[in-house]
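In response to reviewer comment 3 from the previous cycle, which asked for concrete evidence that the modeling workflow produces usable outputs, we include below a single protein chain processed end to end. The sequence was submitted unchanged, and the resulting structure tokens are shown without manual editing.
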Amino acid sequence: MKSKKITLKELAKILKVSVSTVSKALNDSYEISEATKKKVKTAAIKYNYSPNLLAQGLKTKRTKILGVIIPDMRAPFFIRVLRGIEKEASLQGYHILTCFSNESFAKEKATLDMLSQGNVDGIIMALCKESQEQGKFEHVNELISKGIPVTLFDRIDDRINCDKVVINDFESTYNATKVLINAGARNVLFISPISTTSIGKDRFRGYAHALSERPNLSERVLHIEEYKDFSSDLEQILEAENVDAIIAANELTGISAVNIASRLGRKVPEEISIIGFTNGLLSMNSNPPLTTISQHGKDIGRVATSKLIKRINNEKLEYATTVIETTLIKRGTTRN
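The workflow returned the following structure tokens.
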């Protein structure tokens, strides 16, 4: 049976030090020696002490909770980012409250309204599709104007003045397209279910720019509006045109393209090469395994969390955008 929790005052009495010393030691204050910190933390575990977060929040006006808003709970990329956020937050003594906008502007706005009621110290978020499609960002800017720090990742907009963490979507897709062209591809199809988002636009621009450098190559694009129509749409293109390579703007689309091409009897990668985004478990275990542009989602989450906590502790810092480098991971859907 677990022992009864003790108070900060009781822990200080056991250690024969002041309450202030115990508090500072538990919060890694520079004023306390490493030996004392170790002694206090060991005793806290032994005597089952844990801080009263509600009381701390009332005293410091901090909740030690970070709000996180994810556009799509099904996307492997966002799950990887969330893992990075949770790990870094935990290391820095924070908890996270995770919400999902489901690509809806109305839900994103309602969620921000809820989180702004003193529930969190700051917010990490990727903008939903509808916000970017409609160019509606007032709800985010209003939050920032109230003094609630926001860090955007992945899907961002220059009209929001805050810290941001992104990859270079243009450069990543440009380089991946060049890999296909240099391997002999001449009819490269670009497939995207995120055409109206900032990242979708940048990925298309990277693809288009790589093709523009070769005067004999032209763009072939499939914009996905409804996934239920995707399979038949892609089948029609592959049967009517001599597509020999595909760039998919996300992981699910890339894996689906592999399956559809194989079903039509197209050999992957001998007859058609395919590259997608996100280095998730699905990519690793598709047949054949999907060549992907790894966005290093955990690193994005870790950096976004670190930036937000620094902002919480020093609101006068200059806003900055951090770019995380991507890696092309070659697997079984591209020729060597």
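The mean pLDDT is 92. We consider this sufficient to address the reviewer's concern, and the full set will be provided in the supplementary archive.
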